[in-house]
Specification:
The structure is a single chain. α1 packs antiparallel against α4 and α3 runs antiparallel to α4. The longest helix has 28 residues. With 136 residues, the chain is an all-alpha fold. It contains four helices and no strands. 76% of the residues lie in helices and 0% in strands. The structure holds fe (ii) ion (FE2) (2 copies).
Length: 136
């Protein structure tokens, strides 16, 4: 059973950004499934690493898009990304130290909220701006 499902309610109206968000949700589900099925430290660690890498790529892509399109709240959006990056890095450090037992159900539900609350909050606030600019 997946942790989090994509729905149109999560769409920010920009296909390239929706695709990246979908990919991140997919990695969260992989992490969750791996945890539930008792995958070993290496396998689960790889998924976590991929999630962190695609998160970093996505944040950079989104920040560039916001800057290029003249979005006024870019700096506060960047700060929010930096905080999210710190949070997932701290989960990664915990994982490196204690292994798969760091991936608990509360940690997974934290990560679910970590991503969806940002998409539904800060990301959704740029929606009308980017759509009006015709950004794809
Ligand atoms: Fe964002
Ligand atoms: Fe985003």
């Amino acid at each position: 059973m997946s942790l989090v499902k994509w729905s149109d309610a999560l769409s920010v109206g920009v296909p390239s950004l929706d695709d990246q968000h979908k990919k991140m949700l997919g990695l969260l589900n992989q992490l969750h499934d791996g945890m539930m099925s008792g995958k070993d430290k290496m396998a689960l660690g790889e998924v976590l690493k991929t999630l962190i890498a695609s998160t970093a790529m996505h944040f950079k892509y989104e920040e560039d898009l916001l800057a290029r399109s003249g979005y006024p709240d870019g700096p506060s959006h960047r700060n929010e990304h930096a905080e999210l990056a710190r949070q997932i890095q701290s989960i990664r450090r915990e994982y490196e130290t204690i292994g798969p037992s760091a991936m608990t159900i509360p940690v997974m539900s934290f990560l679910k909220n970590w991503l969806t609350a940002h998409i539904l909050g800060a990301d959704m606030r740029y929606r009308s701006h980017l759509v009006a600019k015709g950004v794809k």
